Task: structure prediction
Amino acid sequence: MANKPESGAHPFGGETSEKPELKTRRARFRYWFDNVFWYHYKWAFLGGIAALVLIAFFVSDMLSQTKYDFQYVVASVSYVDGDSLHELNSAASEAFRDADSGRPAASLGHAIFLGGDGEMNMAAFTKMAAFLVDDSIKFYIFDAELQEGYFGEDVGYADLEKLGYLTVEGTPWLADVSGSPLLERAGLGGVTCYAAVRLTKNANEETPVPDPRHLGFLDMIFNTP
Result:
C-alpha cells in the first residue's frame, strides 16, 4: 500500500504552499502563465480573441466591398443566375468606362429567378420589388411574362421608340431585345425579352433624360454577336 503524502506536501513532491524554485526567466514566465494568467483569465482571454477576430472580419468585409458604378437587373421566370451574367457585366463595364482614366466600370447584374416555389419565390418577388424602387438601378432586362405585372405602365422610363429602338407595340418604353446572342449566352435563349431604361435627372437639366451610357449598354445588347 502506497504511503500517503505528509500533510501539506504535494503528491508528486514539493510543498503545495510554496512556489517552486525557478532559476530562469523562461521558467518563471511559464510558471506565471500556467498558474496565474491561464488559470484565472483563460476564458476572458479566449473571448477577447474571438471578439477581435469577428471585428477584423467585419471591418475587412466592409472595406473590401466593391462600390459598383453601374447595376442592372435581369429578371425571368426561366432560370437565371448571377454566374451567367459575366459577359453582360463585361459589356456594361465597357459602356460605363471612365472617360478620363479609361478604367472599365465596376458593373453588377442582379439575376432574379421568378419561377421558383415557396419561400424562394417569395424572396425573389420581394427582391424584384425592392429593385424597382431603388433609385440607383435604372436598367432592367426581363422576359415578356413579367411585362404586365411590373412594366405595364410608363412610370419614368425613357421613350426608346423615339430614340430609334425596336420597341413593343403600344409600349414605347420597352425595347424588344429578344434573340440577342448576348442574352442567349446569359441563359435567356428562346425567351421573349424586353429592356427598359429609367430616366435620370441630372443637376443641370430640368427634364429627366436617359443616361447615354445606359443607351450604350442597350446598343451592345442589340449588336454584340
